[in-house]
Amino acid sequence: MIVLSRHAAISDDELEISAIRAQGAGGQHVNKSATAIHLRFDIRASSLPEFYKARLLSASHNLITAEGVVIIKAQEYRSQEMNREAALKRLENLIRELTAEEKTRRATRPTLASKRRRLEAKTQRSATKALRAKVR
Known about the structure:
Radius of gyration: 28 Å
Helix content: 25-40%
Keywords: Cytoplasm, Hydrolase, Translation regulation
Order of helices and strands: EEEEHEHH
Organism: Mixta tenebrionis
Distance between the termini: 83 Å
GO molecular function: peptidyl-tRNA hydrolase activity; ribosome binding; translation release factor activity
Strand order of the largest sheet: 3-4-5
Largest sheet: 3 strands, antiparallel
CATH topology: Double Stranded RNA Binding Domain
Enzyme class: hydrolase
Oligomer: single chain
Number of strands: 5
Protein name: Peptidyl-tRNA hydrolase ArfB
Strand content: 15-25%
CATH class: Alpha Beta
């Protein structure tokens, strides 16, 4: 079970996990063992709250298909169990990343002291440049 917050969790029966043979170069063992993990998660059929579903379905991400299915392939480890953990962690990170609410920006004003410092620096630069001018 993946716990996202107090109100949202994904149970194991909502995830479709299958073991497949990993791609790429390997030794004698690679053609016999299915260590890569193929994880599928249907957003529309899940028990996530509507807010999560809406955010995930509206996101444009390469792991989410047009039908609303998240497909993750994990094959970075030689162990099937470690690849399973990596796939679940990637799903959790994806959901957290796409459903995080950004803080609203509040406009700030420069302080009086910062305004004075800026004007004093401008005056100083002006005086320095005036001293560089040719004497008439």
